[in-house]
């Protein structure tokens, strides 16, 4: 920005440069004879119309011209730039460009404050503003225009502006989305070909009107064709990368604008004074000012709106991409398309990647746009929300352990009837490094089929503590496993049940989640999404915690997953302490939901009767009504809680009971200390 302001100051400083005198006294002028023979020096007469800067037509005699002393005047050269009407049109066109540049800079300034604004469009606008300011007052003066001994006119000011602005336009083109932090090999190719075009074009303008001019022009044209080829590949790839809808329409418009305006520059070169002089210098200025508006101002404005729309898409739908293969110049190319999580086809899950918003949380533009979108009532990405600021700063922004507040319905945090509060509310706020170590545990998976069983086994095996994973297909088998775990060790035998979103349709007490909670079991769910019907489904299911994902190929966020498991273990400890009769003042704060779940384990429940068959044969609860498809017929019993049945401890004396109470008190104090942090 400082560089842009400095260039603007230089352009304004040129306005103070001295110009040839117009209303100077006649004593400084010398008469030059036009058509009549003879010279009348030091003649004081009235002079009228200005033919050129400092040269005037005498009112008394149209054959005489008055001009600065020791200066010469060529009538043919003065008129070679164009007629008076063309000159007026050129000045008007330059003032229009000046006004559009000023308006664009004001707009970009407001956009940088309200949404986002790239440096490329601001830089190009400042360069164009400096160029038009100089051109308005010194367009045909040296060194803005170079007059060579060969009679050629070289508009060096125009070529200098191209050298300063066109490479930045191509840098913007190579990063249309604004999401890349570096530039690729293709960017370098665009810059090299563009510089070659301008260099050979300038050389052709300096060459005499013969075969040399034609040769250099074709050399520059070859570089320009290379630029167009690389730019076309960028546009095609960008079209398949940006989100569908308005973003793709903007990319298509930018492509038409780019090729339609840039292809006119070599044509104007041939027709203008640099080429073969079919149009005057002023006519060339008018045409180039029109092209400057379309190729720079309008194109940059469209690129700005494209980046804003992509920012909005990421803030609402997340940084989710899908790998898509396209054919580009006869070669297969793999691009990553920004998609909505609701548009994901289950058959294409292996091509979907959730890059997370952690790397974007440090960008002030994302935070500003998020706040303004929230003020308008737009649901934004959870990991960019204010409640997740600590989570993002501690490297947990890639996913979201979304527990607690979203499961409360319309109840306040302090409401004793609120769902999902207590220790669970800290899951999205407390960094993983502040949590205690995980303990070995057991978890039951409630899956619709066997597709994700191996995936979740892998996720639990990656935890720092060993976990026994018991899969079940469908609600019936899940209830059977929970029933057996309750008989083996009560509610504390199993840490929690991880439920697929397929079984969250019924949030009533007769649903799977309600029945599990009545049995005193903790329930977590996966499949939460930042937008769409899945978000409402999971948040209103009354589970104790829920997790975003999994998304291919990264699965779930490890830190978030560990936080979810840790909180489930804390809830299990709280239930165990409540069952042992710890004083209420010593228990950590919990919810009525958890208290009800604990009491349900000690009250006779029809769900715990013999009407529900055992999940595994030979355990005194009858034969299972359905075989578990996760295991073979010969060995239908999985490595279940029964295979690692704990031995019944011998009756303890007074010393053993005292030691148990001391251990229990130590755990209670540790939990209270963690809650107070």
From TrEMBL:
It comes from the Eukaryota. Residues 620-648 are annotated as: Disordered. SUPFAM superfamilies: Family A G protein-coupled receptor-like. It is a multi-pass membrane protein. GO terms for cellular component: plasma membrane. The keyword Lyase does not apply. The chain crosses the membrane at residues 88-110, 122-140, 160-178, 190-208, 214-232, 253-272. CDD domains: 7tm_ChRs (cd15241). InterPro entries: Arc/bac/fun_rhodopsins. Residues 622-635 have a biased composition (Polar residues). One of its GO terms (biological process) is phototransduction. One of its GO terms (molecular function) is photoreceptor activity. Its main location: membrane. Gene3D superfamilies: Rhodopsin 7-helix transmembrane proteins (1.20.1070.10). It is found in: Membrane. The keyword Transmembrane applies. Keywords: Chromophore, Membrane, Photoreceptor protein, Receptor, Retinal protein, Sensory transduction, Signal, Transmembrane, Transmembrane helix. Residues 1-24 form the signal peptide. Belongs to the archaeal/bacterial/fungal opsin family. PANTHER family: BACTERIORHODOPSIN _OPSIN, NOPA (EUROFUNG), PTHR28286. This is Channelopsin 1.
């Amino acid at each position: 920005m400082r560089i842009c302001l400095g260039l603007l100051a230089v352009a304004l400083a040129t306005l103070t440069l001295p110009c040839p005198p117009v209303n100077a006294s006649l004593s400084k002028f010398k008469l030059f004879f036009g058509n009549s023979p003879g010279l009348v020096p030091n003649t004081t007469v009235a002079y009228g119309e200005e033919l050129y800067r400092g040269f005037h037509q005498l009112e008394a005699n149209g054959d005489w011209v008055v001009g600065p002393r020791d200066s010469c005047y060529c009538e043919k050269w003065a008129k070679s730039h164009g007629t008076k009407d063309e000159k007026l049109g050129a000045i008007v066109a330059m003032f229009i460009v000046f006004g559009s540049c000023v308006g664009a800079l004001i707009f970009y300034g407001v956009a940088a404050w309200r949404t986002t604004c790239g440096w490329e469009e601001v830089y190009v606008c400042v360069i164009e503003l400096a160029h038009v300011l100089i051109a308005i007052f010194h367009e045909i003066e040296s060194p803005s225009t170079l007059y060579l001994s060969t009679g050629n006119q070289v508009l060096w000011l125009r070529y200098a502006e191209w050298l300063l602005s066109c490479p930045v336009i191509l840098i913007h083109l190579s990063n249309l989305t604004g999401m890349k932090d570096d530039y690729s090999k293709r960017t370098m190719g665009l810059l090299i070909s563009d510089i070659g075009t301008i260099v050979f074009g300038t050389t052709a303008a300096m060459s005499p009107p013969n075969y040399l001019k034609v040769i250099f022009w074709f050399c520059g044209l070859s570089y320009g064709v290379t630029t167009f080829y690389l730019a076309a590949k960028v546009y095609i790839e960008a079209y398949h990368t940006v989100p569908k809808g308005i973003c793709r329409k903007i990319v298509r418009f930018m492509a038409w604008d780019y090729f339609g305006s840039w292809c006119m520059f070599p044509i104007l070169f041939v027709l203008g004074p640099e080429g073969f002089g079919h149009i005057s210098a002023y006519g060339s200025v008018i045409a180039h000012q029109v092209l400057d508006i379309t190729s720079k101002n309008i194109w940059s404005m469209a690129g700005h709106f494209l980046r804003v729309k992509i920012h909005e898409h990421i803030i609402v739908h997340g940084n989710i991409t899908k790998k898509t293969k396209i054919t580009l110049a006869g070669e297969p190319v793999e691009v990553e398309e920004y998609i909505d999580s609701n548009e994901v086809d289950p058959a294409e899950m292996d091509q979907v990647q959730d890059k997370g918003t952690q790397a974007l949380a440090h960008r002030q533009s994302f935070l500003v746009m998020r706040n303004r979108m929230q003020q308008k009532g737009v649901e934004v990405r959870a990991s960019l929300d204010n409640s997740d600021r600590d989570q993002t700063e501690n490297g947990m922004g890639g996913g979201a352990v979304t527990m607690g507040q979203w499961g409360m319905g319309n109840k306040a945090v302090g409401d004793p009837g609120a769902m999902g509060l207590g220790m669970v509310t800290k899951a999205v706020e407390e960094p993983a490094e502040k949590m205690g170590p995980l303990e070995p545990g057991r978890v039951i998976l409630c899956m619709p089929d066997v597709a994700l069983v191996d995936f979740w086994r892998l996720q639990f095996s990656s935890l720092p503590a060993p976990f026994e994973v018991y899969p079940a297909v469908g609600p019936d088998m899940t209830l059977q496993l929970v029933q057996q775990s309750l008989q083996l060790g009560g509610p504390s035998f199993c840490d929690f049940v991880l439920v697929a979103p397929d079984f969250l349709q019924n949030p009533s007490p007769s649903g799977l989640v309600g029945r599990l909670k009545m049995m005193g079991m903790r329930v977590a769910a996966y499949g939460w999404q930042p937008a769409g019907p899945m978000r409402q489904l999971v948040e209103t299911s009354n589970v104790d915690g829920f997790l975003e994902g999994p998304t291919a190929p990264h699965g779930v966020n490890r830190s978030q997953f560990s936080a979810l498991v840790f909180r489930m273990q804390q809830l299990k400890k709280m239930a165990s302490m409540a069952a042992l009769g710890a004083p209420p003042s010593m228990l950590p704060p919990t919810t009525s939901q958890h208290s009800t779940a604990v009491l349900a384990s000690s009250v006779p429940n029809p769900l715990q009767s013999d009407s529900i068959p055992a999940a595994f044969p030979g355990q005194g609860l009858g034969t299972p009504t359905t075989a578990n498809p996760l295991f073979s017929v010969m060995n239908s019993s999985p490595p279940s809680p029964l295979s690692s049945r704990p031995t019944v401890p011998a009756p303890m004396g007074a010393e053993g009971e005292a030691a148990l109470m001391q251990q229990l008190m130590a755990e209670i104090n540790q939990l209270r200390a963690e809650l107070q942090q």
